[in-house]
Structure formats: C-alpha cells, structure tokens
Write a structure and sequence with these properties.
By secondary structure, this protein is of the alpha/beta class. Helices cover 16% and strands 41% of the residues.
Length: 118
C-alpha cells in the first residue's frame, strides 16, 4: 500500500523518544542520523536538528486518527497542558469551518501536529 511518513526535526533523539513514548509511540529504528517511531499504523520519522529554535519552527504534519479523543486523553495523561504558548502544548479538538474536527499538539521542538478525526 502506498503511504507517506513525515520527516520531522528533533533537537535530541532521546528526549523526543521519551516524549512520544508517553503518547504510546515506540521506537522502531534509531541511529545517529535517523529515528523512527510507531503507534499502531502511525509512523513518524525524525532527523537530528540540534540547533533548531522551537519558537521559529515551521515544521508540521497531520495525524488522521480514528479515535481523536483517545489520543487527546493520552496527551492529557502525559501531562501536556492545554495552552496557547510553550512547548509542548495541546489545543483541544473543535469542529472547524471545513467540517473537520481538529485538535493541535505542539511537541518539544515546536513541530505542529494537526490531530484530525477520521
């Protein structure tokens, strides 16, 4: 089956791995130049970017989820605050003008993950 995987920055692979592990992701590949994590059928791939400034990051991706509320609950259980500033942070899902229900997660490195209910 055709598929795409986002390639995202990580200032520190260990910190990124620990953060996403709290959300149910497991590391499936890790070397000095690349890290892959999976959560069910979701896959995120990371490259090292130690000099990244999270406040100016423009990296992002969409996670299309069958159970958006369960993923948001995992974020809450991990202690990710609902906030408009800071890293990491969560914006609760809402119905948008597009008709889609979308939440937003900003990770440790300022990457925006749009959380879209399938």
């Amino acid at each position: 089956m055709d598929h795409a995987t986002p390639n995202l920055p990580a200032r520190d692979f260990s910190a990124t791995s620990r953060f996403y592990a709290m959300l149910g992701f497991t590391e499936t590949w890790h070397d000095a130049g690349w890290m892959i994590i999976d959560r069910g059928s979701l896959r995120l791939e990371f490259f090292p970017y130690p000099e990244l400034d999270p406040t100016t990051s423009s990296f992002g991706t969409c996670l299309r989820l069958d159970d958006l509320e369960a993923f948001v609950a995992a974020c809450a259980a991990a202690g990710i605050a609902v906030a408009s500033k800071g890293f990491p942070r969560l914006h609760r899902p809402a119905r948008e003008p597009s008709g889609l229900t979308i939440g937003y997660l900003v990770d440790l490195d300022g990457t925006l993950l749009r959380l879209i209910q399938n």
